[in-house]
Amino acid sequence: MPPIIYNAGFNMRRKKFFENLGNQLIFGLFVTIAAFIMYAAMSTLVLNTFDLTMTRYVVAEGEQPQTKKIEMPIMKMLIFSALICSSDTVAAVSIVDYGAQPKLFSCILGEGVFNDIVAITLYVAMLSLQGKEFSGQTLWLLTM
């Protein structure tokens, strides 16, 4: 993702980018954080509520397949949620013509850039907290 963000900085129309900064922040920052929270909450809820198992789980080569219950600690679930909360706007930007719709183009491009920045920041924050036990203090550390 960093090369995409770096390249977007050179290819964006700066004037339109800053004119639409409010819309880009709403979609890029707040929606990405909301998606992260929803992915983490729903994934944890599903894994803790339902008895999900892997069938044909092979421990070592040559052994018989087994059935194993899927278990994932909350901190690993948060890291996974940080990875999947980023959206891909490359396809959307490629079909929007800047000359015909400059505001839409700059909003999509800016949202994608902010989305990637927030996703990278969340992922790095989750990795830094990986060895800690999940608690209220963990949530406080995330806001700093």
Structural class: mainly alpha
Task: Quote the average pLDDT.
Answer: 78
| Low-confidence runs | none
Measure the end-to-end span: 23 Å
Give the strand order, joined by hyphens, for the main sheet: 1-2
From N to C, what is the helix and strand string? HHHEEHHHH
Share of helix among residues? 55-70%
Put simply, the count of helices is 7
The number of E-state strands comes to 2
The percentage of residues in β strands lies in 5-15%
Global Rg: 20 Å
Domain count: the total is 1
Shape field: elongated
Q: Main beta sheet: strand number and arrangement?
A: 2 strands, antiparallel
What is the fold's blueprint, element by element?
Elements: H1 2-11, H2 14-19, H3 21-49, E1 53-57, E2 66-69, H4 74-84, H5 90-95, H6 102-128, H7 136-143
Helix pairs in contact: 1-6, 3-4, 3-6, 4-6
Give an account of the 3D structure.
- The protein has helices at residues 2-11, 14-19, 21-49, 74-84, 90-95, 102-128, 136-143; strands at 53-57, 66-69.
- It is mainly alpha-helical.
- It has one domain (2-143).
- Strand 1 and strand 2 (66-69) form a beta hairpin.
- The longest helix is centred in the N-terminal third of the chain and has 29 residues, at 21-49.
- The radius of gyration is 20 Å and the shape is elongated.
Would you kindly provide a brief summary of this structure?
This protein is mainly alpha-helical and 144 residues long. The protein is built from seven helices and two strands, in the order αααββαααα.
List the defining traits of the structure above.
144 residues; mainly alpha; two-stranded antiparallel ribbon; 7 helices; 2 strands
